[in-house]
Design goal:
The protein folds into 2 domains: about 230 residues, 3-Layer(aba) Sandwich (Aminopeptidase); about 80 residues, Beta Barrel (OB fold (Dihydrolipoamide Acetyltransferase, E2P)), CATH 2.40.50. It contains 7 helices and 18 strands.
Length: about 350
């Protein structure tokens, strides 16, 4: 059995974090009009034993709040004396967007399409450059936490480039029932980190500007499982959790007309080719169009706003090689397990 090595001090943003120590840092991202500094909050937990450097970050899109709570709960349970390696927790990357409850930065750019950024570029490019070069490059692994965009909700899922073996192992360890084999998108944190050989997985769950208890509980549990997989924490991922099922492709079903949507299916539901997903009607009801599934699959995302224009994305369907009924059953088992976990946590809080 390999001997565990004692860790060493970890340096980030010019600050040294000692062995077995945790420290709160602030990365000055920009200044407000008042010249008040705007800082990205960072918590570094440096374990007593040598191991990976894992970053868990959230709110690259400032209105995606579930990940912020995932990071908070994660930090509450981490004990440096039991940790191997180093955890870098960044609950709010896009502080501008977070303050304004917006996905974007004030320049209306998407920070997750701006990596690796530029020292002399737009505000989004400058912030991406700063965060990437001062924080992300120091990591060996990254978990990027997201939700659906405004008026959209996502089933808990992992998106990852499964062609990379280390990334695939992280994706499977997280424990969501569905893993989307997603190609790298130019300008994303996932893409640019991968260019440096850093495995990154993206967790998607819930919707913007809302706390979703299932999405949060699944996120905390998933990060815990990945840390166990990386041997940063003692214990193994429970064997009773089924292996995730891989979706090799997905597509959005879009509205063919303008109108008011009456959904007939819900998140996580199995649908068959030609099944009616929704009716789109005029306000007076004098016209009505059926929105049908182009292929059999599972609903992994959907619009929550009942008002649509022609071309709006309404349902996101994932397509699996497995029997869709098997996938649906695993989703039900997963959600039941998360609900049980929530009940256990609430009981523990009441007893403390």
């Amino acid at each position: 059995m390999a001997k565990v090595k004692i860790n060493r001090p970890f340096t980030l943003l010019g600050e040294s974090i000692g062995v077995g120590e945790r420290k709160t840092l602030a990365l000055e991202a920009a200044k407000l009009y008042t010249h008040s500094p705007l800082n990205i909050p960072i918590e570094v937990v440096n374990g007593v034993m040598e191991g990976p450097v894992l970053m868990v970050c959230a709110a690259i899109h400032g209105d995606e709040l579930n990940g912020v709570e995932v990071v908070r709960q994660l930090l509450a349970k981490i004990d440096p004396s039991q940790l191997r390696g180093t955890l870098i927790a960044v609950p709010i990357v896009n502080v501008f967007g977070f303050i304004h409850k917006s996905r974007y930065l004030p320049d209306r750019r998407d920070m997750n399409r701006s990596f690796p950024g530029s020292e002399r570029g737009s505000l989004a490019g400058r912030m991406a450059y700063m965060f990437f070069n001062q924080v992300a490059v120091h990591c060996t692994h990254i978990i990027d936490l997201h939700t659906g965009a405004i008026h959209r909700t996502n089933l808990p899922q992992i998106r990852a480039n499964l062609a990379d073996e280390a990334t695939a192992q992280m994706a499977k360890a997280f424990g969501t029932p569905a893993v989307i084999d997603a190609s790298l998108r130019n300008g994303s944190l996932r893409s640019e980190a991968a260019n440096l050989g850093i495995p990154v997985i993206t967790y998607e769950a819930g919707e913007a500007l809302r706390f979703d208890p299932i999405a949060i509980a699944a996120g905390v549990q998933g990060v815990d499982y990945v840390m166990r997989h990386l041997k940063m924490m003692r214990g193994k991922r429970p064997k009773k959790i089924p292996e995730p099922i891989i979706a090799r492709s997905t597509s959005w079903v879009r509205a063919e007309v303008d109108g008011i949507v009456r959904a007939q299916v819900s998140l996580g539901e199995r649908v068959t080719k030609g099944q009616v997903l929704a009716f789109i009607s005029s306000p007076l009801g004098d016209s009505e169009l059926e929105l049908r599934a182009p292929r059999s699959g599972i609903i992994i995302g959907q619009q929550t706003m009942p008002l649509v224009n022609e071309g709006d994305a309404v349902f996101h369907i994932a397509y699996f090689a497995n029997d869709n009924s098997v996938v649906e059953q695993q989703l039900e088992t997963f959600i039941d397990g998360i609900n049980d976990l929530e009940d256990e946590l609430k009981t523990a809080e009441l007893n403390n």
